[in-house]
Amino acid sequence: MATPTKYSIWSLLRNAGSYHQNWQRVWRQPTPKDEYEVIVIGGGGHGLATAYYLATVHGITNVAVLEKGWLGGGNTGRNTTVVRSNYLYDESSGIYELSMKLWEGLSQELNYNVMFSQRGVIGLSHDRHGNDEQSRRGGAIHLNGIDSEILNVAQVRALVPIINTSPNIRYPLFGGMLQRRGGNARHDAVAWGYARGADARGVDILQETEVIGLMREGSRVVGVETSRGAIRAKRVGIVVAGHSGVLANMAGFRLPLESYPLQALVSEPIKPVLHTVIMSGKVHVYLSQSDKGELVIGASRDAHNSYSQRGSFHLIEEQLAALIELFPIFGRLRMMRQWGGIVDVCPDASPIIGKTPIEGLFINCGWGTGGFKATPGSGWVFAHTLATGEPHSINAPFSLKRFSSGYLIDEHGAAGVAH
Amino acid sequence: MKQQPYRLPTGGRIERNRPISFVYDGRPYDGFIGDTLASALLANGVRLVGRSFKYHRPRGVMTAGSNEPNAIVQLETGAYAEPNTRATQVELYDGLTAASQNCWPSVGFDFGAWTSHFSDLFPAGFYYKTFMWPRSAWMRYEYFIRRMAGLGSSPRVPDPDRYEKMHTHCDVLVVGSGPAGLSAALAAGRAGARVILVDEQNEVGGSLLEETIAIGNDPAMSWANKVREELIALPETRVLLRSTAYGYYDHNLVMISQRVSDHLGLSERSTDIPRQILWKVRAKEVVLATGAHERPLIFPDNDRPGVMLASAARSYVNRYAVKPGSSAIFFTNNDSAYKAALDMHAAGMRVSGIIDVRSDISGSWAQSVRDAGIPIFENQVVVATHGKSGLKGVSVMKLNPSGDGVDGVTQRVHGDVLCMSGGWSPVVHLFSQSRGKLNFDVAKNCFVPGTPVQASITVGACNGSFLLSDCLREGFLAGTEAAKNAGFEAIVPDLPDVQEPELTEERAVWETPNRLPSGRGGKRFIDFQNDVTSRDVELAAREGYLSVEHLKRYTTLGMGTDQGKLSNVNGLAVFSRCTGHDIPALGVTTFRPPYTPVTFGVIGGRDVDHLFDPVRKTPMHEWHVSSGALFEDVGQWKRPHYYPQDGEDMAAAVKRECEAVGSTVGIADASTLGKLDLRGPDVKKLLNWVYTNAWNKLETDRCRYGLMLGENGMVFDDGVTTKLSDEHYLMSTTSGGAGHVHQWLEEWLQCEWLDMKVWVTNITTQYAVAQISGPRARDLLAELTSDIDVSPQAFPFMSMRCGTVAGISARVFRISFSGELSYEINVPANKGMALWRALMSCGQKYNITPYGTESMHVLRAEKGFIIVGEETDGTVTPMDLGMDWIVSKAKKNFLGKRSLSRSDIIKSDRKQLVGLLTDNPDYVLGVGAQIVSQINESPPMPMEGHVTSSYYGPRVGRSIAMALLSGGLKRQGETVTVWDRGNIVRAKVSSPVFYDRDGDRMNA
């Protein structure tokens, strides 16, 4: 295995001297083998992270990642890049904080700058009830050892001077909850960094390789049928946000998921004006400013189930009205690009990471509208699950079985947008 | 009037009798109505108009339309400031002020240009490879990266303008009013169809605005205006100008942004006129006549100010009467540059020559050029451009025999404008947004629309038809067909005669061959705005970013404010060379809406300020206002929070209000409680399904409390339902829950229980409700009614009586949320105020005291009544609330029943509702405070519950709290530790009922 060039200012300088003609490929275009130890279906951030940690933590490198399109092309490349770990329940704290800790060293770990910027995330409250809710949440987060601060209006204004703090608006600002360690990361870079790292350790990333069926022998999965032929494997993991129900259906079981379109948009790039991530569940919108200068804006999912990656325009109208309510100075800015993705939502707004009814087949799905932030931790625990055949204690609570036992982890209130 | 040195003495569509002045970068200039900011700047000889995003390269105007990558300016200042505005689309108005952006201190001398000298260090994606050391420094690196990025600046004061929305339907929507669009609209309009013709410019005509060829016997624009006049005269036809169809969504929904007053001077604008209007048009048929954009060619330093598209140069000369320079050079691979060269020659400009990559050039265009004495440099390419911040000339070389390199010596051609044409790309954005697939037309070197997915037809240049006569013919046919599809009888209008030369074949050359490989020598720009060069595309391919989407994201190709209108196809072509895949195999990236950026303001429309979310007020609202009530938001409702008197704070007011309820009588406005009228033979069945308890034995005029569960067994609403007759019930819901509950019932009735005969009507706002509560409530009610026997025997707790109260026909419910003797008097909404006043005036002798939601909550908390959303959060079952009694054991089924038997739901250590009494009776716990099972020096600390409600209870004379506590039902009497925003507080677990446990007062 060729060690990839270490990325640094020195390698940039060196390559500048040779007109950048000698950079290595970030990943290979391998031909599928007949058999792998582990197949990960889905070449998004979560799937690639899974493969990366299989190789680095568990030493399992005979792994293929199957991607029907181009890697990072699903929700990894469509989300609004917010990272935070301020969830209510202990179980959620476990996985999101594991992610946060991995994020904090991810660029160095991958030797690929994922531009993780801890610029702070503020969830706004607009009334006493919202403030009570944040007090509960903030207390729980704090007692779980995760940073969280409750802010009053003046403290919000100090961090975000351009926000509308007039008491005369429809839903005046009441306060907020801040996680300073939260922020943004560059979404594509996360997929690319994990892909490069996994590939360098021998993982085969097979793009444009669509899974069309699961191969079973008795109660066990033994491989997958793909658009490029059959590939056998001892263990198979499904990590296909937006498409989980379809893959489960192929495998012959059902998931308690509903799939919805979720839209996002960006403004034209402007000079820095917003330095933290702002979310409001009541005046329904959330936004941040990217390093390129675009305001990245999201809000509600569509009401209807769909796999179309297209949402309804009225939601864009509502979220921009909400944006202007919070930031009247943004009225003259313009929407530059608008798109949609598909989110798989569980009844309790928490993910499923673990076993399926089929032996050797594991699933990681149901991240709803908030999967990006969990990418490293999700990959880490799913790699553990695939390597050992059993969930790690961190993902054990997120089993598929919890829906029949009733051990729900209701994080609707922690979701950035209403599920 | 100052001299405009580059203004032609005659011609153009500008209004020479309406001179106006404007300011650019602090300097005054003159122009005319009819100019764009770009044409006026060029007329004044201003050629350097911006700096590029990454390398801060000097840039000039490159296009004459929506595809402009360079001339992006900050328009106006203060409240009217608008960053990133395309000077090529800004209509000049008197007093306009604009400034260049992304440069400091000035566009001519820009410190940021240092990056250009180190550009070898900044290839595509360089930031992914560095800024990683030391780990803690990224935020500092990022600070500078962010400052370097961005283009213009956001306004810093609120937008003063108003925006509107229009919703409309039509038979045929025609997008684009060039020759194809005009003829389509005409054909459909004549057939009687409701036609909307939309165009982004201020006049109809499209390409005809700069056309010199005649249509029939008229100059092209005369024909266009005749068509426009005929269209306007038709009763069902609408022409929308300055309107961009920017998005094509499902079911033929096309979104249009109309700029109503942007072209007016600031002093002429008024808040009576919206700035912009968002049109949402649902069309039976859509005709896409969106034209085509000329492509640049890729060669070294192809971004020098003075390099522009040949079609743009032609537009400036013919439409705006502006010479883009003194002497022009052309560089082309097709005939369209010849047209432009002839027009510039005719306008008296010096044309130094046409450099054409093709050889053996024949055809009538070439002949005319030769006749005009313009030299043609056949089989040659531009290998360098000269000049510093403006073009002075180019070097050209001959192509080698195989066409992939250059031979011989360089030859210098002088000129200050280089007009380039790399062929044309149809504007397929809307077609692609409508989910139509594109095909690559090898003969025409462009992507053309494939089979439409929605009811649409593409015509003209958008279809790859570049001859005027073809555009007219296709337009007439499409308009006729669209009208027919929409149900009209239509005939194809007669095609006017058009004399135009045939086009000769284009040579597919994108990046012209050069002396040096593309990493060296002058930069060859593909995406001018984002500074993406062919070297960057090569690098992406070399590094294995082999999908076009990876290419786009890695290099930022096509991600600027021009949305890649000039760069997408050229980028693909270079990528195709690098990867060895042909262009059709590579495919295109998704064309995402909008076609051109759309103002947030117009998308938000009127749903801002006080219209952001409707304010709901009860019929008694004005009384509360005049009585000094402070309000709180409950859902969309404004409810009185408390009624402070004589400078009372909330605690004092609430204490006084609660004591009045406990001792005499209080009055509260309960109109906001949800009220659903249920009728039909199956109401009882429905109630049995949606509530956990049994409804079979409820008698007429009796009330029953119910808990509603979701399918997961968790409480999601509660309320009292009253049986009015066998087939008529009235269900009450929480104030915030009426809508959800209504939807919930309808979902089951409409999707699952189709056989159930129940009609649900939300009558929440049809009734006003006054709640009188306290020991004297009966006396008060008795005084105001003569036909209701209010004696406890005749009107017991949990029953309803119809009658007259204060002369108003009313339903009176004897139910209680306060724990006191209480009546809820429902009257028609318009009688609410009269009822309220009567109660107030009659109640004076009892010192009747209005109380708000805060007291309401305190009173109910003392009594241990839950509030859905406080004591419950979607994770709480009836058993968790200690309300097993309300879950029927006998009923076979109800919504949520199965979930209640799940193994984790029946566990005894679930969080259960308890009361908490702090050791210090004056300490009021914070809502949301966490109960911890162990105190540590610092977190983490294990949690076992949290406070759901907490108040000082005036009737019990101490602080009270309700909490959800792990295994709480069996922990009565235990002392627990509460972490309350850093304070450690000890409290005793108690029953959540703190007041009148036996209910004697309520039942009195």
Compact description:
The complex is a heterodimer of chains A (419) and B (1004). With 419 residues, chain A is α/β, with parallel strands linked by helices. Chain A is built from 11 helices and 18 strands.
Keywords:
heterodimer; A: 419 residues; alpha/beta; FAD/NAD(P)-binding domain; eight-stranded mixed beta sheet; 18 strands; 28% helix; B: 1004 residues; alpha+beta; Ubiquitin-like (UB roll); seven-stranded mixed beta sheet; six-stranded mixed beta sheet; 50 strands
Overview of this protein structure:
- The complex is a heterodimer of chains A (419) and B (1004).
- With 419 residues, chain A is α/β, with parallel strands linked by helices.
- Chain A is 28% helix and 25% strand.
- Chain A contains 11 helices and 18 strands.
- Chain B has 1004 residues and is α+β, with helices and mostly antiparallel strands.
- Among the domains of chain B are: 1-158, 2Fe-2S iron-sulphur cluster binding domain, sarcosine oxidase, alpha subunit, N-terminal domain (Ubiquitin-like (UB roll)), CATH 3.10.20; 163-292 and 426-485, FAD/NAD(P)-binding domain (3-Layer(bba) Sandwich), CATH 3.50.50; 300-420, FAD/NAD(P)-binding domain; 516-580, BFD-like [2Fe-2S]-binding domain (Arc Repressor Mutant, subunit A).
- Chain B has 25 helices and 50 strands.
- In chain B, helix 5 runs parallel beside helix 11 (468-485) and helix 21 packs across helix 22.
- The interface between A and B is large, with 110 and 110 residues.
